[in-house]
Amino acid sequence: MNEPLIAPSILSADFARLGEEVDNVLAAGADMVHFDVMDNHYVPNLTIGPMVCEALRKHGVTAPIDVHLMVKPVDDLIQMFIDAGASYITFHPEASEHIDRSLQMVREAGLKTGLVFNPATPLHYMDYVMDKLDMILLMSVNPGFGGQSFIPGTLDKLREARRKIDASGRNIRLEVDGGVKEDNIGEIAAAGADTFVAGSAIFKKDDYSRIIADMRDRIAA
Ligand code: DX5
Ligand code: ZN
């Protein structure tokens, strides 16, 4: 299994001090930055776009930026985030007219790809594109907001996704997003996740180093 990665979601950061917040969370031991893009169409909320990603790169952020597109359609924004310095670009299969083409756009630009599965979205969308995936992201809440509760059925879905990845023999990360906290991250890891998004659990704490170290201990336990 891949080395575990912790990806704080900047949705819960203080947007008025975003550069500083990202610097602080990376200095505290985070592995990458999870960047939630919402369009008030595919999901009922509106957040940040490619200009903010580019601004973080100009600010000096060199860590991977994991762009989670909750937008429909996806292709125009994929191109804009390629140009803005994204590292991973993940999108929801329901939001793309041509899933294979959207994945190829990301791959051909040399970035890492991922498909995102809402709680009720079946995993079979991955079946014919396994060779074009670097990551599978399972939503453990309905997308749109930080601070929601983890949906317990995600644990079985994680085990199923882990089986599919292992059966494929491919090196595909399994990420989980939504309601990940220090008290459930151990069982989420045991169910097969190797990449952990956490927004409110990290940014609502004063000591980012301590919560990230605590999460790592619980993943390893
Ligand atoms: C929700 C976003 C998440 C969100 C997670 O639609 O995709 O990345 O920020 O926030 P928490 O960890 O607070 O549930
Ligand atoms: Zn997200």
TrEMBL record:
It is an enzyme of class 5 (isomerase). Substrate binds at residues 9, 68, 144-147, 177-179, 199-200. The keyword Isomerase applies. One of its GO terms (molecular function) is metal ion binding. One of its GO terms (biological process) is pentose-phosphate shunt. It catalyses: D-ribulose 5-phosphate = D-xylulose 5-phosphate. One of its GO terms (cellular component) is cytoplasm. Keywords: Carbohydrate metabolism, Cobalt, Isomerase, Manganese, Metal-binding, Zinc. The active site is at residues 36, 177. Belongs to the ribulose-phosphate 3-epimerase family. This is Ribulose-phosphate 3-epimerase. It comes from Halovibrio salipaludis. The gene is rpe.
